[in-house]
Amino acid sequence: MNKRLLVGFAGVALLLVTAGCLGGTSSVASDRLDADPAETYAWESDVDAHITVQDNGRFRAVYDVNSSSLELYRFDGFGSRTPLSVEALRYRYENGTVVNGTELRARGGDVTRNNRITNVTLPADANGDGKLAFTSSSTPKRFALPVLVEGSYEVVLPPNRRVDFPIFGSVQPSGYETEVVGDQLHIEWTNVTARNVVVQFYLQRDLGIFAVIAAVSILVGGAGMLYYRRQIEALRERREELGLDVEVDDDDRRGPPPGMG
């Protein structure tokens, strides 16, 4: 009986751990937070959230934060929160001073992580008004992230990427505007209150490759159908030559009338 109870408790504990109830919290390594971003963050942007998607399946984000902390996460396939992996973290005070992860901690802030969220506690002297920037991972040709702060959003795609062709491109939520600056597409929302921002995009040359593949497929398919039809016609002619397809009238099947032979 005791053994069964022990097994039962172990099972419950395992379920609690996998559900996140007993997951521990740990600090994110300072050397990771202090790493340099690929390019300068878009501090001067006037939107509440500015996302720059990079060529390598990563992105740089800048959030206007008016609270003492910010939870960073994304949703898994089951709709549960999982912590967002961050690096090259920076905080910019209202006066323009920028600090890295180590300096943020020295000023009373912290960056911790459990199995549901990455929590950024802002410096004690931040006065709840500044901008938080970090770099994280994305998916090639698709950016998706929960709406971590409500308000205006801007997503900047890598050079020569577009979203217009329905099969390869899509943007959620609706109500956005687009503008091409140089060779980069900017997607802007005045106010986002949806659960997620999702941008599916493609490289412009992909459309040309797709057109060539489609044309070749049509030609090959058409040639195959023509060949198949010709084979059917040849087989029909051959059967007729052998008398296999000669139709017999009903009168011929019944034979001559009685008395006639």
Describe the protein's architecture and organization:
The protein is of the alpha+beta class and 261 residues long. The chain has two domains: 23-200, Sandwich (Immunoglobulin-like); 203-243. It has five helices and 18 strands. It has helices spanning 2-19, 30-33, 101-106, 204-241, 250-254; strands at 26-27, 49-53, 58-65, 69-75, 81-83, 87-93, 98-100, 110-113, 118-121, 130-137, 142-146, 151-156, 161-162, 170-172, 176-181, 184-192, 196-200, 202-203. The strands form four sheets. It has an eight-stranded mixed β-sheet. β6 (87-93) and β7 form a beta hairpin. The protein is elongated and about 100 Å long.
Features:
8-stranded mixed sheet, 2 domains, 261 residues, alpha+beta, transmembrane helix, Lipoprotein, 5-stranded antiparallel sheet, DUF5803, elongated, Immunoglobulin-like, membrane
Summarize the helices and strands and which ones pair or pack:
Layout: H1 2-19, E1 26-27, H2 30-33, E2 49-53, E3 58-65, E4 69-75, E5 81-83, E6 87-93, E7 98-100, H3 101-106, E8 110-113, E9 118-121, E10 130-137, E11 142-146, E12 151-156, E13 161-162, E14 170-172, E15 176-181, E16 184-192, E17 196-200, E18 202-203, H4 204-241, H5 250-254
Summarize the structure.
This protein is an alpha+beta fold. The chain has helices at 2-19, 30-33, 101-106, 204-241, 250-254; strands at residues 26-27, 49-53, 58-65, 69-75, 81-83, 87-93, 98-100, 110-113, 118-121, 130-137, 142-146, 151-156, 161-162, 170-172, 176-181, 184-192, 196-200, 202-203.
